[in-house]
Amino acid sequence: MNQKPVIWSIAGLDSGGGAGLSADQRAADAMGVHLCPVAAALTAQSSVAVEGIFPVPPDQLDAQLAALAGDLPPAAIKTGLLGGVEQLRVVTHWLDRLRERAPVALVVDPVLRASTGASFADEPLLRAYREELLPRASVATPNRREAVRLVGEGDVAAQARALQALGVGSVCITGGDEGGPLALDWLDSPQASGWLALSRRDARNNHGTGCCFATGVAAALARGFVAADSVVLAKMLTASGLQAGTAPGAGAGPVRPTASFITDAGLLPALFETPPAAWPERRTGPSAVRGLYAITDSGAHAARLFEAGVRTVQLRLKRSEGDTDWHGRLCAEVESARRPGATLVLNDHWRDALALGVDFVHLGQEDLLALSAQDRRDLAEARANGLRLGISSHSLWELARAAAWAPDYIACGPVWPTLTKAMPWRPQGLDNLAWWAAMAPAPVVGIGGVLAPEQLAHIAAQGAAAGCVVRGLAPGSAHTPQHWMAAWQSGAAQSHAAGWPHPSI
Predict the structure, then answer these.
(1) What is the pLDDT of residues 452-480, one digit of tens each?
(2) Which among 208, 291, 308, 367 could bridge 23 via Cys, Cβ 3.0 to 4.6 Å?
(3) Pick from 207, 242, 272: which residue ends a domain?
(4) Residue 344, CB half-sphere, CA atoms under 13 Å: how many?
């Protein structure tokens, strides 16, 4: 990215340097965006208490925003402590003016109470949040106590729906202040919903986590990521800043994220349908798939590929509506494909795979979302009894959802444009593939648009465990399996470091 995206943070100045604009600046620096810090309120604050709050006069707040609007227009705005109704209305006035010119994302961190207990919002300000600011919000990031003040008691899913009913586009109700072995946030967005989890860190220096998180969301939106991916990045960012050790004052020290968070595999969260009791146990040992990974819709063709030396073949069979002989056809294709010592993967149809004794299945994200509660229990039991599992992923939130299943591999695609199936995703490219390979909690398989052996070599060079070939191995193809396997070996001898991923939708 040649020019850093610009974001505005309209928030409070913490004289203790822990939360507010100080935390926002540290988060923006780690996210690689330019932050314009706009003071909406001044606080007399230390690491242990808030002694006073002094809202900036509305005309002074307006002057700050007017000065920025022409020279440093924002791609995203994050609001924190606003100080009062008049200040909030200055913000909404400028947001509406900016949106007349270009899209501007709004992330609302409803700072209603300090972590030390001081209240920052009276009833008129709460009403202004509900009626004026939140209806304009792209994302809201309340913690659980703030969600209660805004929309009342209830489970977090109901609270998120209530916030969306006010007009909020996406909601993440953060749970970092709660107890338990996992830090759990509830995400509800147009792309995904569920529990975003990371193992809880024992950290004394955790002041300003809410500010850091919301700024991380705004920065990711400014970089072009959709809401669900932005929340994944914000959780990684915030977790990276939780530090143990000595605090500068008597209270909690500030959260200090660093730019290296983006390539720290230990920070990738997992996305669960239901609250998990523990972190998913990662599969260990050699990769279940390695090198050339062929995909075909014919059992006889799969057998020929195995005989040519290919060690992993996926049998991709589609069941059409009204197919009265599905089970018989599937059984015949599987039996035709089986070869001792070879890895046969069956797509989608995991219950059929269990019935036929196929011990490896591949599921797409739509298959995971279609699972009922009983399906999830049965699939988890099958996994415990030895069923191996590969999962597709196309975005950061899908990678997080795949991680929750502790799969044997995670597919990243499409690496290049593909005509094999219609999908809304932009090509991942080799940069995203390298990031997946560095960050995923399972071996990564590159898939999509691989038509020439040199492309497979590039996939190997990014650190992937395997690369999928479909049309390039179809009967009559110009390239033999040996050509493809040689290309893999040549690419595997190279290596590329991962950097920032780019948005894929």
Answers:
(1) 999 999 999 999 999 999 999 999 999 99
(2) 208
(3) 272
(4) 30
